[in-house]
Amino acid sequence: MKKIFYITFVFAVIAMGGCKKSDLDYVPQDQLSSNSFWKTEKDATLALNACYGYFSNAYTNAYDDGSTDNAYAQYPWESNATPIAAGNINATIDQGYGSRYVYIRRYNYFLDNVAKAPLSAAVMKRFVAEAKVLRAITYYDLARIFGPVPLLKTAYAEASETAVTPTPEADVINFAISEIQSAVADLNPAIVQSGRITSGAAWAFLARIQLQYQKYGNAVISAEKVKSLGYQLFRKNTLTADDLTDDFSNYLTFANAAERDKFYKGLASYEQQFWAANELDNKELILASQNISNSSYDYGNGLRTLFPSSDLGGWSSITPTQDLVNAYWTRNGDVFTPPAANVRATNYNSGKPNAAYIDEFKNRDTRLYASILFPGTPWGRINAGYSFAWGKGGGNNSATGYNFKKLVDPSPESSQNEWDGAQDFPIIRYAEVLLAFAEAKNELIGPDATIYAALDDIRTRSGMPAVNQTAINTKEKLRDFIRNERRIELAGEGQRYSDIRRWNIAKDVMKTTYDITNSIVQTRVWDNKFMLMPYPQTAIDRNANLKTAQSTKGY
């Protein structure tokens, strides 16, 4: 299907080597010496490919949604999402601090040694640029999660060299931004190469970082750079018989055949952009974690196991909350007004939903039907005649009453492979860039035609109406609209964790979650210190300089 880029063993071995030895010492037979490596372009390519291991298994970003009001992660042994959402946060948790520094060391080693390899000037520049952007992305992730962190820019031989005072968060971010800016001109400009850092990926990440840190003017510029490169939203303009498999007539009222056609094209366009069959020519996918099935080197995409319900062989590990389901617009683009929780429980009728319960899911946003399995949802593409029925209570059933459908490829190749789905996971896609552009520009100047155009591109792709500019006509109204649109469009992709923190709304949304019978799923507690995660105790034990910063963060 595609070349896999996560060949980590060779580079991991040489990166962790470097011991001094006399001239009489022989090269060990079980590892490579840096003096015997870097002899060919292939050596340098393998070393760079190892750096891309940072994106392997990126499908676990979905757990970040489980740390928010979007989803519930019911198994605490699978991730830190369960205790984070509950507010049980302390230094026993390592939210990726240690693993990210493994890659920081790998990038630094590569950058310090790649000049030894016999590369052409153009290839050398590109390889260095890709590694610099990877390092910048990793430092961004460290800073947004932990705040101040040690800023290590060169390789080291002894662990004691890393025991330095953490650099302020703002300085780490400025370093990351400057590194990407200095690298972008040397990157490949191709737009259909989602497994590598291209110039488009670099500009897209700049927009993400600048938006996160409220550098709105710069975020607009970076997003406009991406917009000028030729990326476009994935659209399926011709329907097949398979695309019409699922009958949604119980949930949608179509005025005519054109309205029906619009819905099914929107449904296919949104959900099928994540399928393996559409990866190679998908101009929406800017950067992805690439997967193949039946690989002897690594597992594939595991969401086929983590997302679906038990009757489909899944574990219901990460499931949508009622609050996320409520966030999807009505069919005409208005805010949905949900029934009271006790009324919903009555209408659900212990698993025998009445007509009033079905009404809650009638004429809603197309992306609801593409993303969420609610009781009664048809999904014949994964199993002929299938209709979702919630099996409450244990047995790998959803704890909330809903399962994710989005990001699950229902093709036989993917649906039959536990932990080994072939589909790629989107790390950043063009829809996010359009949303970043809209949000940043609105914060700068308020509503304008280019903002509405970006939002309308996203909405019409999924068969939804354009933004009602008469109603959504102020900066404040458009801000709320964009935030909800972002939540819907990017659900399950892991962006909500940072969004609720940068918008300072976590204190309002991290509330106790309930299932559709109005039973408590998880009691959640929020403390403002949770804006940043604590350094893990293992890191503090190695670097006493972290203690003061840990205390400053409130831990």
TrEMBL record:
Gene3D superfamilies, sorted: 1.25.40.390
Ranges for domain RagB/SusD: 284-547
Main location as per UniProt: membrane
InterPro entries: SusD-like_N, SusD_RagB_dom, TPR-like_helical_dom_sf
Residue ranges constituting the SusD-like N-terminal domain according to the UniProt record: 65-211
Pfam families: SusD-like_3, SusD_RagB
Keyword Membrane: yes
Keyword Aminoacyl-tRNA synthetase part of the UniProt annotation: no
UniProt keyword terms in alphabetical order: Cell outer membrane, Membrane, Signal
Signal sequence extent: none
Subcellular location: Cell outer membrane
Similarity comment: Belongs to the SusD family.
Name of the protein in question: RagB/SusD family nutrient uptake outer membrane protein
Species of the source: Pedobacter lithocola
